[in-house]
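Customer ticket, subject: "Can you confirm the structure for GAF domain-containing protein?"

Message body: Hello, I'm evaluating your service for our small team and ran a test protein. I'd like someone to confirm that this is what the system normally returns, since I don't have a reference to compare against.
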Amino acid sequence: MDVRADAVAAAVNDIAQVLAEHGDPLDLAHRLVRHCADLLSASAVGLLVEDSDKDLQLLACTSSEVSVIELFQVRTQQGPCIEAYRTGSVVSVATAAELAATWPEFARQAAGVGVVAVHTVPVHSDGRTIGALNLFRDHEGAYSAVESDVAHAMASFGAVGITQLEHVAEGARVQAQLQEALDSRIVLEQAKGALAQRYRVHPDDAFRRLRAQARAERRRLRDVAQEIVDELDRPA
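Agent reply: Thanks for trying us out. I re-ran your input and got the following:
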């Protein structure tokens, strides 16, 4: 596929708005994975980053179903995303057979959500690998050189953006802000579930409602999500 330069520019501009407004890493991460999915014809995109204990955690994913295999990799410490993180090198698997030959259990989990090909780009910051950007496809085929270059660029831009937001303050807050974003994901998932049940919609549609509300009210995703979760705890 051809990746249009104007589409890449629009994606970068949208992500840059978070930086200009000194926004939160969670918002940046969700914009990053959404744009990568659109630009690179991925059925889903996930972003894994280190937490304050240097353990890899899921920060953002475009699909609630595919987030299951991301979390599977974190739990079992096996799969293409884990390998890219450990080696600091791109891991590209173009067929279901290759996935099964290399990571049999991961391949079974992936097939269960329709994933048959993976292209993973390590995320680097300050000379070391801090995570992995994972592009999943529901059809076989290798990524082109242009697509791979765009994935690299988006991963690098995401790393720079997250690092810049972390360095708004110095010292302990550098890692604390990213840890807050990781913690926020739990609240976000709870809020998505609540909205999905309330409106009888898919969790991904619930997330779109949540994001639209946050943007319309110019509030952080975490704050809007926390408000919804707090409503669940109030006595009827």
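A couple of notes from the result: Residues 73 and 79 are 6 Å apart (CA to CA). The two ends are 53 Å apart (CA to CA). Feel free to reply with more questions.
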